[in-house]
Design goal:
The protein is an alpha/beta fold. 54% of the residues lie in helices and 11% in strands. Helix 3 packs parallel to helix 15, helix 6 packs across helix 7 and helix 8 runs parallel beside helix 10. It is globular and about 60 Å long.
């Protein structure tokens, strides 16, 4: 009998949520995603010291003073991306600075800069997704980058309002977070949820149904899973980005994995079309306490890990 990981790959693109190359080789995902937390963790591993050393050495000869650290940081993200692209056949997501999450111009500039750095190493833009937080400003930046032919992955996405805004901006891919939504409801309601009733699972199913029913091309990639049950309930989603631990659990399980999401099921859903402008987006987002709190918290946490990574690198300069 095939494993659940093998079965999942029949109808969903499996993406590894890791900066650890050994994991990528073990589970053979098509794509990989990174974020400041994963890169900070990987940069401290002895086996990746060579990447840190290279980023520092390459830039020390060209830059000095206040210019040096930002250049090393950008190069380090790209070097990790390049190593990942040697292993996965598809795309890597490289995250923009969390402290730019409300600055459209800065995000556009950073996205273009990352693509230039990848192209210097011979990597075409079709293999890179620029990862941006799903703020109104972030979605506007992605809209501009997409018009340039630069594909984006809108992360820290917790609500239908964010998802609809991304689809209308013609964003390539979104990463709605499952586990963090469940965390919020678990803390608020003081109870556990079965996978089928998991608020994070329900949220991604709603977004998937909306996109497929109204013909949006934006890809849906469920993210931030807390358990295998959440993944099993979203089998059939366009993509799922999964941690090494949960990939391992799927690989050990040989029970049948039925498909739960499909175009046919989505088209029959009762979901209604939303007409969205900036005012409507901000109101819908504001009315969703979970989405408001988790987006803000996610930006803060990613920024905190980016600062730790900066401090780690600065000590080597």
């Amino acid at each position: 009998m095939s494993t659940q990981l093998e079965q999942l790959k029949q109808f969903t693109v499996v993406v590894a949520d890791s900066g650890d190359f050994a994991t990528l080789k073990q589970f053979a995902p098509r794509d990989a995603t990174t974020n400041p937390s994963l890169i900070f963790k990987a940069a401290q591993m002895p086996e990746y010291k060579f990447l840190v050393d290279k980023a520092v050495a390459d830039n020390k000869t060209k830059f000095s003073g206040n210019d040096l650290l930002p250049r090393v940081m950008d190069d380090l993200l790209i070097l990790f991306g390049l190593e990942i692209l040697k292993i996965v056949p598809g795309r890597v997501s490289t995250e923009t600075d969390a402290n730019m999450s409300f600055d459209t111009e800065a995000l556009v500039a950073k996205g273009r800069h990352f693509i230039e750095l990848y192209q210097k190493h011979g990597i075409g833009r079709e293999r890179v997704l620029i990862k941006i937080a799903s703020t109104w400003e972030g979605i506007r930046a992605a809209e501009i980058l997409q018009r340039d032919g630069i594909n984006c992955n809108l992360t820290l996405l917790f609500s239908l309002a964010q998802a609809v805004a991304c689809a209308e901006a013609k964003v390539k891919l979104i990463s709605p977070f499952v586990g963090r939504i469940m965390d919020w409801y678990k803390a608020k309601e003081k109870k556990d949820f079965a996978p089928a009733e998991d608020p994070g699972v329900i949220s991604v199913k709603e977004i998937y149904s909306y996109y497929k029913k109204f013909g949006h091309a934006t890809e849906v990639m469920g993210a931030s899973f807390r358990n295998v049950g959440e993944i099993q309930e979203l089998a059939g989603c366009d993509l799922l980005t999964i941690s090494p631990q949960l990939l391992g659990e799927l690989q050990k399980n040989t029970e049948a994995l039925p498909r739960k999401l499909s175009l046919e099921i989505a088209r029959e859903s009762k979901i209604e079309k939303i007409l969205l402008d900036e005012k409507k987006f901000r109101w819908m987002f504001n009315e969703n306490a979970m989405a408001t709190e988790k987006t803000a918290e996610g930006i803060r946490l990613f920024n905190a890990d980016a600062v730790k990574l900066e401090q780690f690198i600065a000590a080597k300069l």
